[in-house]
């Protein structure tokens, strides 16, 4: 019995130690935009955001201008919060850090400008 409980505790600890990133994959025009946030769920403070932009053939798009906008709608007694950061090229994608300053619902907008093509994905997160 003690061994079974110990093994279950070890499995639970291993499972929680390897939680997956928060991930979103969306198509926008000719692009597929994959977003990965290093915390799931995202938390107050710095959250590393990895963005991969793929063309119609599945090839990584390099040299694009990528921006991350994160905003929280207005709440009673509080104005809306709205921040935009540039994602810098890194390997086969782009990196940005979102500094989420409050718990609750946030809207994320990833904008990609690749030559004359514009891509945009929107998704909500719940910061804890």
Mean pLDDT: 88
Radius of gyration: 18 Å
Q: Helix amount, in percent?
A: 10-25%
Helix- and strand-based class? mainly beta
User: How many structural domains can be distinguished in the coordinates?
Assistant: 1
CATH class: Mainly Beta
- Identify the strand order in the major beta sheet: 1-2-3-6-5-4-7-8
Low-pLDDT runs: 3-17
CATH fold group? Immunoglobulin-like
Q: What would CATH call the architecture?
A: Sandwich
Q: Biggest sheet: strands, sense, closure?
A: 8 strands, antiparallel
CATH homologous superfamily classification: Immunoglobulins
Q: Could you give the count of β-strands?
A: 8
Shape: globular
Count of individual helical segments: 1
Query: What proportion strand?
Result: over 45%
What order do the SSEs take from the amino end to the carboxyl end, as H and E? HEEEEEEEE
Distance between the termini: 36 Å
Mind sketching the topology for me?
Blueprint: H1 2-17, E1 22-28, E2 31-37, E3 45-54, E4 65-72, E5 81-90, E6 93-100, E7 104-114, E8 117-127
Antiparallel strand pairs: 1-2, 2-3, 3-6, 4-5, 4-7, 5-6, 7-8
General description of the model:
The chain is mainly beta and 128 residues long. The protein has one domain: Sandwich (Immunoglobulin-like). Helix content is 12%, strand content 56%. The protein is built from 1 helix and 8 strands, in the order αββββββββ. The protein has one helix at 2-17, and strands at residues 22-28, 31-37, 45-54, 65-72, 81-90, 93-100, 104-114, 117-127. An 8-stranded antiparallel β-sheet has the order 1-2-3-6-5-4-7-8, with no helix packed on it. β5 (81-90) and β6 form a beta hairpin. The chain is globular and about 45 Å long. The termini are far apart. Mean pLDDT is 88; it is low at 3-17.
């Amino acid at each position: 019995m003690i061994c079974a409980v110990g093994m279950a505790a070890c499995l639970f600890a291993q499972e929680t130690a390897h939680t997956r990133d928060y991930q979103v994959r969306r198509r926008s025009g000719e692009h597929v935009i994959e977003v990965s946030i290093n915390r799931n769920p995202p938390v107050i403070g710095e959250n590393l955001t990895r963005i991969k932009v793929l063309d119609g053939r599945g090839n990584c798009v390099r040299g694009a201008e990528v921006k991350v906008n994160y905003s929280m709608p207005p709440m009673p007694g509080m104005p809306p919060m709205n921040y935009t950061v540039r994602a810098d090229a890194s390997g086969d994608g782009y990196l940005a850090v979102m500094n989420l300053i409050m718990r609750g619902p946030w809207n994320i907008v990833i904008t990609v400008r690749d030559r004359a093509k514009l891509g945009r994905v929107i998704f909500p997160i719940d910061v804890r």
